[in-house]
Every structure is written in C-alpha cells, then in structure tokens.
Amino acid sequence: MSHADRDLVSAIRAELAAISPQRACDRAAESAGLGTALATREASVARLAVRLGHGSPEAGRLRPGPCRTKHFRVTEAEDPAARFEWSTAHDHCRIAYLRGRFLARGSLSLASGRAHLEFVVAPGEAPVLAAQLDALELPASWRLRRGRGVVTWKSAEAIGTFLRRIGVSSAILELETRQVTRALRGDINRVINAESANLQRAVAAASRQLAAVDRLEADGRLAEQPYVVRSVAAARRETPEATFTELAERLELHRSAVQRALERLERLALHDDEASATARRRTAGQRASAAQRTPASRQTARPSEGPALA
Questions:
Q1: pLDDT category, 20, cuts 50, 70, 90?
Q2: Backbone angles phi and psi of 138, in degrees to 5
Q3: Which of 2, 75, 180, 305 has the most neighbouring CB atoms within 10 Å?
C-alpha cells in the first residue's frame, strides 16, 4: 500500500478505537471481541483495552510484566461472564463485539485501488464468525490458510457497509471518495482506450479504401463501376477522415449503401490479379471472335498472260 492508503487505514482503526461505548453490555461485548492475549502495536487500541478493562473489571485486565515494549497485551479474566453470547445479545452488543473483533483480528488493505478486509482467527472460529456476519446481512467467505481461519471480504461495497455499521464515519467518506475517483479514472481510461482503438481501425480502413480506389483507377476498372460506387470513391478521396455516416450525409445516401460501395471497392482491388487475367482472356476471346467473323480478304486477280504476239 502507498503511504496515503496506510494513513487512511490507520485513521479508520483509530476512529474505531476512539469510540467509547456508553452501555456496560457494549463495553463487555467489545472487550470480548478484543479476545484473549491481545497483542498490538497501536497505541489507540491499547488505550481502548485499558479503558474497557478499567470500566469493566470483570472483562479484562492488563497482563503483568514490563510495559516498556512496543506491544501492549491484555488478557480476559477467566470468568464465564466475560464470554460473549451472540445468540442472546442485542444488535448493538453484536456491533460492539464485531468492532472489537476487527480491531483485534482484522486487517484492511487498499493496495492498487482494491479494498480487501479479512479476519485471521482460530480455525474453528472462522465458520462461526462468517455465520454471525451473515446474520447481520453481511455475508463473507471463509477458508483455512496455513492452519488458521480467514474470513474475507473483497467487495468494496460490503467493506464500506461493514465499516459504517461498526462506527466509522469521517474516515469512510475519504475511503468512498477514493473509490469513486478510482472508478471514474478507470471509466475514463476505458473510454479513451476504446476511442483510440476505434480511431486506429478507422484510419486503417480509410487507407485500404484509398489504396483500392487508386488500384482500380489505374487498371481502368473504376470507370466500369456503377455511379454510386464511383461517387463514394470520389468522396472518400476528398475526405479520407470522414466516417460512413458523414459520407452518407454528404452524398445523400444511406449509410449501408456507402458501406457496401466501399466493401465492393476493397473486394475488387483484393482480387485484381484474377480480374485482370479474366479481362485479358475476355479481350483475347473477343478479338478472336472478331477475326473469325471478318470475311476473308479478297485476292487481287491478275490478268492472265495472253499468247505472245509474233
């Protein structure tokens, strides 16, 4: 990810960690979502764990030991009350639990303009978490990867909906703005590429048609074509860059008539060798027929020599 993308992900996680649940049940649910043995380098998540532990002593406590490290660890108390019961919990408690689960086990990637969110959890928790998300109409796929369960979203829309549900507000606007900008840039690039390809095809077609007109005119076959074909050929010569529609408007013809005329010119020029040989054979045959029809030349009769005079 770029620095801007990493900063945006950090802003999203910091905004979620700054949420302070007002209900005791929500605090307990979010603490349960943080899970056991929470290890984080994020100061905002560490402060959240401490804040939830202070507000709900039965939900968690700081692990004893030296605190001068880059990691902060929190463990849940070995108390059944600290466990979260999804089936009997209210919706706001479920949202708080998922918020804590995302901060503890979730990761968000925005690399290359694509959004990717996943939870890396224990193998047995992956199908359970996927079912919980599906219950909130946020279906996600799950799989096992290197012995760990992975619950994944790759849809930017689903990721945005989930982040909005768990409490992201200001940072989500920046995320959506980037997604719209990237989508718009992609659409513009596709349109430009399509127009460029169309222009290249039009230039290549006009070059073929001009070459066909020149070839047919050189061997005299252009003059033998119908009036419409000759008119289209002349118009193509005068305006090589014109489209079929523009040529049709100029000649007051249908577009299909212009297209057929140009296709005929290309077809005739493509088979010029065969046509020239056929024309030569036809000319030779016509000459032979004319020679046969011409009467034999009259022989000049010379007067017979008479007897010599004595």
A1: confident
A2: -130, 65
A3: 75
d(CA 132, CA 109): 22
**% of the chain at pLDDT higher than 70:** 75
Give the pLDDT confidence of 254-284 residue by residue, as tens digits.
Answer: 999 999 999 999 998 887 655 555 555 666 6
Residues contacting residue 28 through CB under 8 Å, at least 6 positions apart: 56, 58, 59, 81, 82, 84
pLDDT at 151: 93
Residues 6+ positions from 132 with CB-CB distance below 8 Å? 86, 94, 98
Task: Read off the pTM.
Answer: 0.57
Token pair 């719209």 in the structure block, residue:
180
Vertex 286 angle, CA 282 and 292, to 5°: 145
